């Protein structure tokens, strides 16, 4: 500044003019140095760093560059130059230093924010991120960062100690608790969800209270984002997963088997003992030939041992068509390529009711994919509906319009036949 003023005095300027012109020249000089320093930092230093980093195959280095961490850090250079040049303007020195300090604080906050974003993306590249998501914790750190940064900025502008402002926040704690209620609840819920491994990104969850039925695509501080199977998005509050019940299908997917639990209703009036003709037909069925032969031998030995009179089928033991049918379904499932043979497989009778005798299939498919599972289940019951008449069984269903029409036709035929005979 003194050099500039000495040069201006040589031109015969007045003292007032020298002050104004010297200040303008100094401002332009500092601005030029700041711009040049910023350009050097961005065009040379950052370019060299980017080339060095690009030689390494670490994914994290590329992510740091993509998040513009170094680019934002370069803004500190002109701020530092302006800060240490403030003494050139004694009258405005304090104001310039405060504004430069506030700017440096703001830049530092943005750099740390970019670092947190980069760290989150780096962490997501590992499989552990699906088990232990940290996005909620990072959001909490950002909230704390911006609160502290805001306090430091206000303290820098008014020239007060930040601790004085922090002490005054005690009176606003109730207001802060109200403003950040969801964030606090979300933080507590996120800790419980993570520590108890209740939900992960990629899990299929079902929560009827929120009409959510799909895959978890994101877990944040306040919400859990679920993409439903109809491609709609449901946002569930994080604390709702702690306070309300939901179903997580992860264990089913990891087990490799998906349960099939469905019944067919057998008309009880079609159940009866097997005739010799039926037994002869059953022996021709691949899955039943060994069973029928061994079972008949077992029944014959039992009846002979107990000297049972076989003049009536009620006496002793006999094969029933529903029992053979149940064994056939069991053997059919045992030989089905899409049924998991290492998991529970039961074909059982449930309590009979108004709709007949329920035969329940309890098994697991060996493919958990939804489309494959439904196809396997439909294929099994298609076969059961088709083969039931071969065992002399009728599957129950309530009368339909077609059944009523057939009944009316059967009633009209004898009447028509009697009229024709009288006319003849």
DSSP helical segment count: 18
Coarse morphology: rod-shaped
Q: Report the sheet with the most strands, covering strand number, pairing sense and barrel closure.
A: 5 strands, antiparallel
Find the count of extended strands (DSSP E, 2+ residues): 8
Query: How much is the radius of gyration in Å?
Result: 42 Å
Question: Helix amount, in percent?
Answer: 55-70%
Series of H and E elements = HHHHHHHHHHHEEEEHEHEHHHEEHH
Low-pLDDT stretches: none
Portion in beta strands = 5-15%
Across the major sheet, the strand order is: 4-3-2-1-5
Number of domains: 4
Structural class estimated from helices and strands = alpha+beta
Question: Distance between termini?
Answer: 138 Å
Calculate the mean pLDDT score and round it: 81
GO biological process, one term: cellular response to osmotic stress
Transmembrane segments: 20-41, 76-95, 101-119, 140-158, 164-191
Main location: membrane
Organism: Saccharibacillus brassicae
Describe the structure concisely for a colleague:
By secondary structure, this protein is α+β, with helices and mostly antiparallel strands. The chain has 18 helices and eight strands. The relative contact order is 0.05.
List the SSEs and their pairings.
Elements: H1 2-9, H2 15-54, H3 59-66, H4 69-73, H5 76-84, H6 93-124, H7 128-131, H8 135-158, H9 162-168, H10 173-179, H11 181-195, E1 204-207, E2 212-219, E3 223-228, E4 233-237, H12 240-243, E5 247-248, H13 250-255, E6 258-266, H14 276-282, H15 289-305, H16 321-334, E7 346-349, E8 357-365, H17 370-387, H18 401-423
Antiparallel strand pairs: 1-2, 1-5, 2-3, 3-4, 6-8, 7-8
Helix pairs in contact: 1-2, 2-5, 3-6, 5-6, 6-8
Protein name: Mechanosensing system component YbdG
Membrane topology: Multi-pass membrane protein
Keywords: Cell inner membrane, Cell membrane, Membrane, Stress response, Transmembrane, Transmembrane helix
């Amino acid at each position: 500044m003194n050099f500039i003023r000495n040069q201006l005095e040589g031109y015969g300027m007045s003292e007032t003019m020298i002050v104004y012109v010297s200040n303008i020249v100094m401002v332009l000089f500092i601005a030029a140095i700041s711009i040049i320093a910023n350009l050097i930092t961005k065009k040379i230093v950052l370019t060299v760093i980017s080339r060095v980093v690009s030689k390494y195959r670490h994914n994290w280095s590329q992510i740091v560059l993509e998040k513009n961490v170094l680019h934002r850090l370069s803004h500190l250079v002109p701020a530092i130059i302006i800060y240490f040049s403030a003494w050139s303007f004694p009258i405005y020195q304090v104001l310039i230093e405060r504004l430069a300090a506030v700017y440096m604080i703001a830049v530092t906050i943005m750099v740390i924010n970019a670092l947190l974003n980069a760290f989150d993306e780096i962490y997501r590249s590992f499989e552990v991120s699906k088990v232990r998501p940290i996005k909620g914790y990072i959001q909490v750190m950002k909230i704390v960062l911006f609160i502290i940064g805001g306090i430091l900025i206000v303290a820098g502008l008014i020239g007060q100690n930040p601790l004085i402002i922090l002490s005054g926040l005690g009176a606003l704690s109730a207001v802060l608790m109200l403003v950040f209620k969801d964030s606090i609840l979300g933080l507590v819920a996120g800790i419980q969800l993570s520590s108890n491994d209740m939900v992960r990104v990629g899990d299929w969850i079902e929560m009827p209270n929120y009409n959510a039925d799909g895959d978890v695509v994101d877990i944040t501080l306040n919400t859990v984002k679920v993409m439903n199977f109809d491609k709609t998005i449901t946002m569930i509050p994080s604390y709702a997963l702690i306070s309300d019940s939901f179903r997580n299908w992860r264990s089913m997917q990891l087990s490799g088997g998906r349960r099939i639990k469905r019944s067919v209703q057998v008309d009880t009036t079609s159940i009866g003992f097997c005739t010799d003709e039926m037994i002869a037909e059953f022996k021709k069925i691949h899955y039943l030939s060994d069973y029928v032969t061994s079972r008949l031998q077992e029944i014959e030995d039992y009846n002979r041992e107990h000297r049972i009179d076989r003049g009536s089928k009620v006496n002793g033991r006999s094969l029933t068509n529903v029992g053979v049918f149940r064994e056939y379904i069991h053997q059919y499932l045992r030989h089905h390529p899409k049924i998991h043979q290492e998991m529970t497989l039961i074909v059982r009778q449930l309590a009979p009711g108004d709709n007949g005798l329920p035969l329940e299939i309890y098994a697991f498919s060996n493919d958990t994919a939804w489309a494959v599972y439904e196809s396997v289940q439909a294929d099994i019951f298609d076969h059961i509906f088709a083969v039931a008449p071969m065992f002399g069984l009728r599957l129950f269903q309530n009368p339909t319009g077609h059944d009523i029409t057939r009944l009316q036709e059967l009633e009209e035929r004898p009447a028509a036949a009697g009229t024709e005979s009288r006319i003849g």
